[in-house]
C-alpha cells in the first residue's frame, strides 16, 4: 500500500487536503488496525487527519474497518436491548457518574456493557469506580458475555474487543494529540445493532459528525453532550438528549438553560472511593438522584424497550426511583 499517497492527499493543509473515499478510508484504517503501517507513516496519517478533520465518509470507512475486527457480543436472551456505555475519558473535576448510570440500569433489569480504558492518566475512570464495588474488568469478550447473561453488567477493556484500536489510542502519549480512533471508540456497539449506544462528545462538531455517522448506519442510540467526555448527563444542567433509530432522530429532552433553583448534593472530591460511596447512597435512596441523570435513565429505558414511550419511562423512574423492579 502506498502510504505516501494517503499522506499527500490528507496533509496538504486546510485548503488543499482531500477527503478519502469510503473504501479508501476502510482500506487505510484496516491497515492501521492490523499494525501494517510503519511508525513514521502512522504518525503522519494520524496528525494529518487530526488537522484536516474527518469527513462522514472517512468515519464510515474507519467504522467499517473497526467493525470487521471487533469482538462480537450477543443480546442476552429474553432481556431488553443492552445499553452500551463507552467510557474513555474519566473525570477530574466532578465525580464520574457513568458507573451510577450503569448500576441503575442493571437494577431495572437492563443488560449494560461499559467498554473503555482501565487507567485514566490522572483522571478517575469508570473501571476504577467499579473496582470499589468489587466489579473487575472482564478479561475477554466471552467472559463479558457470561457476565452479561448472568449479572447483567460488565466492564470490558478496549484491549479485549479491539487490540488495534487500543494501540491507536495509545499513540496519544507519543504524539500529544488525539486521533480518529478517539472518536470512533465512542460509537462502538459490540452487539452489532442489537444494543442501545449512548454516544457522547464534548465538542458540537463531533456531535454533528456522530449524528451523521450513526444516522447513515441506522444505529440505535442516544446522543448527548458529554460530561468531561463521559456518557452521562451533566448532573447540574441537563444536556439535549436525542434518540437516533432507523436512520431518524427524535429529541427526547431539550437542553436546560435556565438558572438552577437547587443544586444536586455532589461531593467536592472526585476520587474513586468518594464516587463509589456517593453512588451507594444514591442507590440506597439516602441521596436524591439528580434529575438530569433520572431523565437520561428514562431515555435509556425507553430506547431499550422497557417502556412503550418516553412518558411511560419517566413514570417508571419517578415511581421506582433508584430501581426496584425489573423491566
Structure description:
The chain has 327 residues and is α/β, with parallel strands linked by helices. It has 2 domains: 3-68, Transferase, Pyrimidine Nucleoside Phosphorylase, Chain A, domain 3 (Up-down Bundle); 83-320, Pyrimidine Nucleoside Phosphorylase, Chain A, domain 2 (3-Layer(aba) Sandwich), CATH 3.40.1030. It is built from 16 helices and 7 strands. It has a 7-stranded mixed β-sheet, sandwiched between helices. It is globular. The protein starts with a helix and ends in a 7-residue tail after the last helix. 48% of the residues are buried. The mean pLDDT is 94.
The level of helicity is 40-55%
Secondary structure: number of strands? 7
What sort of overall outline do the alpha carbons produce when their principal axes are compared?
A: globular
N-end to C-end Cα span: 51 Å
Order of helices and strands: HHHHHEHEHHEHHHHEHEEEHHH
- Could you please say which CATH topology of the largest domain applies here? Pyrimidine Nucleoside Phosphorylase, Chain A, domain 2
Structural classification: alpha/beta
Strand order of the largest sheet: 3-2-1-4-5-6-7
Count of the domains: 2
Question: What characterizes the major β-sheet?
Answer: 7 strands, mixed
Spatial extent as radius of gyration: 20 Å
Report the CATH C-level class of the largest domain: Alpha Beta
- CATH architecture label of the largest domain: 3-Layer(aba) Sandwich
What is the CATH superfamily label of the largest domain? Nucleoside phosphorylase/phosphoribosyltransferase catalytic domain
Q: Which ranges are low-confidence, i.e. pLDDT below 50, for 5 or more consecutive residues?
A: none
Count of DSSP helices? 16
Beta-strand content estimate: 5-15%
User: What's the overall average pLDDT, rounded?
Assistant: 94
Amino acid at each position: 500500500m502506498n502510504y505516501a499517497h494517503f499522506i499527500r492527499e490528507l496533509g496538504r493543509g486546510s485548503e488543499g487536503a482531500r477527503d478519502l473515499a469510503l473504501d479508501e478510508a476502510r482500506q487505510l484504517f484496516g491497515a492501521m488496525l492490523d499494525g501494517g503501517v510503519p511508525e513514521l507513516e502512522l504518525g503522519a496519517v494520524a496528525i494529518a487527519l487530526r488537522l484536516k478533520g474527518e469527513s462522514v465518509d472517512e468515519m464510515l470507512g474507519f467504522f467499517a474497518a473497526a467493525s470487521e475486527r471487533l469482538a462480537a457480543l450477543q443480546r442476552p436472551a429474553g432481556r431488553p436491548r443492552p445499553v452500551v456505555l463507552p467510557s474513555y475519558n474519566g473525570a477530574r473535576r466532578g465525580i464520574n457518574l457513568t458507573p451510577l448510570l450503569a448500576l441503575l440500569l442493571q437494577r431495572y433489569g437492563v443488560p449494560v456493557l461499559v467498554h473503555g480504558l482501565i487507567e485514566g492518566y490522572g483522571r478517575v475512570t469508570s473501571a476504577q469506580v467499579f473496582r470499589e464495588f468489587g466489579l473487575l474488568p472482564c478479561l475477554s469478550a466471552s467472559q463479558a458475555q457470561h457476565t452479561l447473561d448472568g449479572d447483567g453488567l460488565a466492564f470490558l477493556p478496549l484491549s479485549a474487543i479491539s487490540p488495534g484500536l487500543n494501540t491507536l489510542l495509545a499513540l496519544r502519549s507519543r504524539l500529544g494529540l488525539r486521533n480518529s480512533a478517539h472518536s470512533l471508540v465512542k460509537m462502538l456497539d459490540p452487539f452489532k445493532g442489537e444494543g442501545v449506544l449512548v454516544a457522547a462528545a464534548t465538542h458540537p462538531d463531533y456531535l454533528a459528525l456522530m449524528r451523521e455517522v450513526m444516522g447513515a448506519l441506522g444505529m440505535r442510540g442516544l446522543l448527548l453532550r458529554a460530561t468531561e467526555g463521559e456518557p452521562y448527563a451533566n448532573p447540574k444542567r441537563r444536556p439535549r438528549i436525542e434518540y437516533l433509530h432507523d436512520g431518524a432522530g427524535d429529541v427526547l429532552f431539550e437542553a436546560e438553560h435556565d438558572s438552577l433553583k437547587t443544586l444536586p448534593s455532589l461531593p467536592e472530591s472526585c476520587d474513586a472511593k468518594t464516587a463509589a460511596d456517593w453512588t451507594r447512597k444514591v442507590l440506597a435512596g439516602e441521596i436524591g438522584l439528580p434529575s438530569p441523570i433520572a431523565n437520561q435513565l428514562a431515555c435509556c429505558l425507553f430506547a431499550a424497550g422497557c417502556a412503550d414511550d418516553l412518558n411511560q419511562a419517566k413514570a417508571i423512574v419517578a415511581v421506582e426511583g433508584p430501581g426496584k423492579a425489573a423491566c
